[in-house]
C-alpha cells in the first residue's frame, strides 16, 4: 500500500545555524537511522556506529561549550535535534539524551582542569556515557542509594550495584553517585568512572517490551578504584548534582517523547489517507478525523511546553517545575498518541509490518525513566504548595 510521505515539522529556530543543524540531523536520520530501525530493534542490535557518526558530526555535545568540543547550542535547539532523532529511532534519541545527561556533572560542576582533561573526548571524541543513580532497591527514593565510596589515600574505592542503566556494560564512562558520608541526600558524592576500570562490569541486558536495541543493564562496581581527581564537585554534593542533571534530562525525555508521538501521528495520517473502506479513504470518516485532530493537538501542545521550559533554561531562569510538567505531559501524550495510532491502523497496527506497535511499546518506558510521572506530579505539587507535611 503506498504511503504519503509526512511533511517535516515546521520548526521555529533562532538562527540560520540552527536551521542548517536540523537539516543535517534530518539527513542523517533519513539515510542512516530510520531505514534500519525496525530490523535492528527487532534483533536487539545497538547501533554504535551511528553514535560514532553523530560524534563525528558534532551532535553528541550540542548544549556544551565549544571550548571543550561542544556545539554551543541553546537547549531550545538541542531538544529539537533530539526530537528528530527519536522520531527516526528512540534508541538513538534517548541514547543521545542519556549521553548528554552523563556529561552534565563534569560540564557544570567539574574543575577547569577536569574539564580540559576529559570533556573533549566525552563531547566529540567518540565516547559514549552512562548515568548511574538508580539501584535495585532505590529507584524513586534515589537518596537511599547504597553504593559506597571509601577514601583510600588519594583514591576512592567504590563498591555497589547500579540498576536500569542505559548503555550499562557498553559505555566508555559512567557518572556514578555513591555514598561517601551520612545516610540520606547529604552523604552522596559524584564520580567520573572510566568504562574500562578494573572491577566494573555490566550484567546481561534486561529483556524489555520495547527499546530492545538500547541496552539497559545493572552495573556492578566491585572495589573500583578512581583517583580523587575524578570526584566531581564537593564531597556530599552528589545528590544536588544528580537532581540538577535530571531537571535538564527530563527535558530530553520530553523531546524524545514528542519525537515518537510525531512519528506515530505521521504514520496514522499516511495510513488513514490511503486506506479505503466503503468506497472512500478512512480519513473521511468524522470519528477518525477527530482522533487525528486530537493526536496532532497533543503533539503540538507537548512541543510548545518543552520548548517553553527550554527557553527558561537558556535564559538562566528557574525551570525545574516546567521541566517536570514537560516530562509529564509529553510522555503521557506519547502514550496516548501511539495507542491511538495503533487504533487508526486497526488490525494492521497490531502487527510488526507497521511501526506503530513499536512506537506504542517504546512510549511506555518514557513515562517511567528519569523519574516516573507520579514523581513528576510530586515535584510539580511541591513547587505549588511546598513540601509535604511530615
Low-confidence stretches: none
What is Rg?
A: 21 Å
Supply the number of helical segments: 10
How many angstroms does the end-to-end distance come to?
60 Å
Write out the strand line-up for the largest beta sheet, numbering strands in chain order: 1-4-5-8
Sketch the topology as an H/E string, one letter per element.
HHHHHEEEEEEEEHEEHHHH
Percent of residues in helical segments? 40-55%
**Share in β-strands:** 5-15%
- Provide the residue-averaged pLDDT: 96
Structural class: alpha+beta
Shape: globular
Q: Care to count the β-strands? A: 10
Question: Which sheet architecture does the biggest sheet show?
Answer: 4 strands, mixed
Describe the protein in words.
The model has no long low-confidence stretch (mean pLDDT 96). The protein is α+β, with helices and mostly antiparallel strands and 390 residues long. The strands form three sheets. The chain has a four-stranded mixed β-sheet. Helices cover 51% and strands 14% of the residues. α3 (75-88) crosses α6 (238-274), α4 (90-109) runs antiparallel to α6 (238-274) and α6 (238-274) packs parallel to α8 (320-345). The protein starts with 15 loop residues before the first helix and ends in a 5-residue tail after the last helix. A hairpin with a 2-residue loop joins β2 (148-152) and β3.
Offer a concise description of the structure.
With 390 residues, the protein is an alpha+beta fold. 51% of the residues lie in helices and 14% in strands.
Amino acid at each position: 500500500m503506498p504511503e504519503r510521505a509526512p511533511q517535516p515539522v515546521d520548526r521555529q529556530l533562532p538562527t540560520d545555524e540552527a536551521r542548517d543543524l536540523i537539516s543535517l540531523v534530518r539527513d542523517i536520520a533519513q539515510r542512516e537511522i530510520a531505514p534500519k530501525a525496525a530490523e535492528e530493534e527487532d534483533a536487539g542490535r545497538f547501533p554504535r556506529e551511528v553514535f560514532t557518526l553523530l560524534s563525528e558530526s558534532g551532535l553528541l555535545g550540542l548544549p556544551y561549550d565549544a571550548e571543550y568540543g561542544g556545539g554551543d547550542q541553546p537547549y531550545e535547539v538541542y531538544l529539537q535535534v533530539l526530537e528528530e532523532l527519536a522520531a527516526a529511532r528512540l534508541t538513538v534519541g534517548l541514547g543521545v539524551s542519556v549521553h548528554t545527561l552523563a556529561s552534565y556533572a563534569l560540564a557544570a560542576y567539574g574543575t577547569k582542569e577536569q574539564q580540559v582533561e576529559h570533556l573533549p573526548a566525552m563531547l566529540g571524541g567518540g565516547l559514549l556515557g552512562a548515568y548511574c543513580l538508580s539501584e535495585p532497591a532505590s529507584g524513586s527514593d534515589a537518596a537511599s542509594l547504597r553504593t559506597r565510596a571509601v577514601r583510600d589515600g588519594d583514591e576512592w574505592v567504590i563498591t555497589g550495584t547500579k540498576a536500569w542503566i542505559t548503555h550499562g556494560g557498553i559505555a566508555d564512562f559512567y557518572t556514578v553517585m555513591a555514598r561517601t558520608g551520612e545516610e540520606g541526600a547529604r552523604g552522596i558524592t559524584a564520580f567520573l568512572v572510566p568504562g574500562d576500570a578494573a572491577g566494573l562490569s555490566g550484567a546481561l541486558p534486561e529483556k524489555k517490551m520495547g527499546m530492545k536495541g538500547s541496552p539497559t543493564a545493572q552495573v556492578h562496581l566491585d572495589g573500583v578504584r578512581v583517583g580523587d581527581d575524578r570526584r566531581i564537585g564537593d564531597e556530599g554534593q552528589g545528590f544536588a548534582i544528580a537532581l540538577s542533571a535530571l531537571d535538564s534530562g527530563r527535558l530530553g525525555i520530553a523531546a524524545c517523547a514528542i519525537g515518537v508521538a510525531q512519528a506515530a501521528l505521521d504514520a496514522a495520517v499516511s495510513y488513514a489517507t490511503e486506506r479505503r473502506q466503503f468506497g472512500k479513504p478512512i480519513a473521511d470518516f468524522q470519528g477518525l478525523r477527530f482522533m487525528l485532530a486530537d493526536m496532532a493537538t497533543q503533539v503540538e501542545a507537548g512541543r510548545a511546553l518543552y520548548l517553553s521550559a527550554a527557553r527558561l533554561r537558556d535564559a538562566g531562569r528557574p525551570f525545574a517545575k516546567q521541566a517536570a510538567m514537560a516530562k509529564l505531559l509529553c510522555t503521557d501524550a506519547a502514550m496516548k498518541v501511539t495507542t491511538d495510532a495503533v487504533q487508526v491502523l486497526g488490525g494492521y497496527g497490531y502487527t510488526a509490518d507497521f511501526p506503530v506497535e513499536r512506537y506504542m511499546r517504546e512510549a511506555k518506558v518514557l513515562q517511567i525513566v528519569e523519574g516516573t510521572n507520579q514523581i513528576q506530579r510530586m515535584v510539580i505539587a511541591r513547587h505549588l504548595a511546598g513540601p509535604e507535611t511530615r
